[in-house]
């Protein structure tokens, strides 16, 4: 039987405090992003107060586009506390990926805007530049 502190939380309390949901917490535990908490004498998970901080960290990292694997690395680096260069390297890699995705999205937008300009929006679908472009066979 594990002793628990009065400040420890149930999974529901943790979910509310961190702005998450119970299933997400369980998923992060399975992925190793959140250490499994000790259990009380009656078998309930009892999360320490810092678990909410860790969940908020994960959520903020996700909003910046970090993958769960990268978030795991960031958490490890945070805990080790001595490798700012590795943190910056992860951030730069994520930034480069986001830049590439933005460039792809801009190309898609430009192509679709061109097709939109060429389509009158009137008449039958036959001869519609949007349909024709989608129907073309390409060699890549």
TrEMBL record:
Alphabetized SMART domains for the sequence: HTH_MERR
Question: Is Transcription regulation among this UniProt entry's keywords?
Answer: yes
**Annotated protein name in UniProt:** Mercuric resistance operon regulatory protein
Q: InterPro entries from the entry? A: DNA-bd_dom_put_sf, MerR, MerR-type_HTH_dom, MerR_fam
Q: Which UniProt keywords apply?
A: Coiled coil, DNA-binding, Mercuric resistance, Mercury, Transcription, Transcription regulation
Pfam families on file:
MerR_1 (PF13411)
**Is the keyword Ion transport in the record?**
no
PROSITE patterns in UniProt: HTH_MERR_2
The entry's function note states: Mediates the mercuric-dependent induction of mercury resistance operon. In the absence of mercury MerR represses transcription by binding tightly to the mer operator region; when mercury is present the dimeric complex binds a single ion and becomes a potent transcriptional activator, while remaining bound to the mer site.
Residues annotated as domain HTH merR-type: 8-77
Which residue stretches, if any, does this entry annotate as coiled coil?
A: 88-115
Q: SUPFAM superfamilies recorded for this chain?
A: Putative DNA-binding domain
């Amino acid at each position: 039987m594990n002793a628990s502190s009065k400040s420890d939380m149930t999974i529901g309390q943790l979910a509310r405090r961190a702005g998450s949901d119970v299933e997400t917490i369980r998923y992060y535990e399975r992925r190793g992003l959140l250490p499994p908490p000790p259990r009380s004498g009656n078998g309930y998970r009892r999360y320490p107060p810092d678990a909410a901080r860790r969940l908020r960290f994960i959520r903020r990292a996700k909003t910046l586009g970090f993958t769960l694997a990268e978030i795991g690395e960031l958490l490890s680096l945070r805990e080790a506390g001595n490798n700012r260069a590795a943190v910056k390297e992860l951030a730069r890699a994520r930034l480069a990926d986001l830049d590439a995705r933005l460039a792809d999205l801009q190309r898609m937008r430009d192509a679709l805007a061109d097709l939109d300009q060429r389509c009158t929006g009137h008449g039958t679908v036959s001869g519609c530049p949007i349909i024709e472009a989608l129907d073309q066979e390409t060699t890549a």
